[in-house]
Amino acid sequence: MKKKFPVFALLAILTLSAFGQTLDLEEQEEIDHLFFLPNSGNQFANEAQAMVQLDNAARYLIDRNPGPGRIYVYGYAAAAANDIEPVGLSRERALYVINELQKRGLSGALFAEPVAYGSVDLWGSNTDEEHRSPNRRVRILLDDLILTPALVQPPASVPETSAAVKAEIIPDNDYSTASARAKFPWWIILLSLIITALAALLVYLLSKSRKKPQEISIEETPPPKRDETPVFVPAAVSDAPEKLMVLEEEEIRRYAYNLFERRNGQSGLDAEDWYQAVRELTEQYKAQGYRVTLYWESRT
Length: 300
Hints:
The chain is 41% helix and 15% strand. It is of the alpha/beta class.
């Protein structure tokens, strides 16, 4: 127990630090980036500001000289009780922004197919108009980086009433913002420490598993009990009976869903989660002395 305490204490401190930093970033989430009016695919909530942001984004992209299909435009919509189809509306918004950028000198070949996310609750809960408006937006990405407007101080020769807005590249993170970026990327150091602590914890658990396999639990709740039928290996191989474990579909799904939650709900990796769940569960039971067979194999 004394050996485990320093590892868990370090992990707890790092987790709390990361959680506190995330809360701070959430409070500074961007609030005025290419928002659209309700039920509209071609009218911005703040037309003048959106035009400035599009001008700056176009200049930035031209300077970057991207290759064909490297610019991605994502459209979003809020969930509202009306007859408008949200996927079509979010696609219309993405196409409108692409058209505006093309007017500013960007070739249509530079854009990938627009992505329509339909109704989302990523920035607001959609419970009322105040919480629906942040979800009516379009985001512009260059490869995997989001272009986000950052308010900057105007030059000395420009009156303070005409503040300039420029587009700045930041990492693809729903809770990141240009105004929240530190001068030094401390989050990289924090992430490295968390990974190191997790690796140390994993090594410790693996070392314990060789001594007491029954104490290891990959999930928060133990897997359901299975009917175990001893299978005897021929004497030429081993004199000890071999236990059979049938890996059922429901257990695989639960484990894959845990993997999905560990990635903070990032979608698009369903197949990878499934195969990783099968692989890790199989290794877990084999480490406990089971011969593992998959549910579809046991029914053939």
